[in-house]
Automatic annotation (TrEMBL):
<dbReference type="InterPro" id="IPR000801">
    <property type="entry name" value="Esterase-like"/>
</dbReference>
<dbReference type="Pfam" id="PF00756">
    <property type="entry name" value="Esterase"/>
</dbReference>
<dbReference type="InterPro" id="IPR029058">
    <property type="entry name" value="AB_hydrolase_fold"/>
</dbReference>
<protein>
    <submittedName>
        <fullName>Esterase</fullName>
    </submittedName>
</protein>
<dbReference type="InterPro" id="IPR050583">
    <property type="entry name" value="Mycobacterial_A85_antigen"/>
</dbReference>
Amino acid sequence: MERAYHKWFSPSLGKYMEILVFGHGGTPVIFFPTRSAHFYDFENWRVIDAMKDKIEDGHIQVYCVDSVDSESFYSDAPPPLRIARHIQYEKYILEEVIPFIRIQNKKRELIAAGCSLGGYHAVNIAFKHPQLFTKVVGMSARYDLTQPLPFFADLFDGYFDENIYYNMPNHFVPGISDPELLALLREQEITLVIGREDTFLDNNRHLSDSLNQISVPHAFHIWEEEAHRPRYWREMVKIYL
């Protein structure tokens, strides 16, 4: 399995960012890390190994990006600055990572995927930019970071503004009415996966219900137990990516 390491200074973020790329071709996958995790964690957790056959066969090419969650959602900055840093991260993905992928890989299709907070990142960016993403897979994710849950706080301490609204799928999805945006979302292959005992189960049900309300087809899979660990994600990527 081909493996390549890349690093460059990001103008969007004002810091160096790193990426691991697995595979020689196939549909590119932007794989977002879990909460405050890094670009190398999916390799260390053997989640990449679980996709080895698909990668070696040229079915997919996986781009493991880094995160800035500790500088955004999980920072001590005031809430408006937390969401502003997240928006800078999205700009990094849109204006730096995707153009980098297009140089490496000429396939038109593009997949966003992630586990836990990475699943939030994948779904949020794919739903906001369906003209870029043809498929999205969110595993064990939370789609409203403003909602306090057992063991999980409101990441904005009760603060709410337009930037937060447009970056929380459970808030903005029910309000989507633009015909062009809806048409693009209805063409996307959308998969949500969550464990039956996961704290985020109702969060996922809410998003699924919201997609149904705006007639956006999607697959919603509920696994047994919590299913919020690398050993489950290793099985999920085999099935859904």
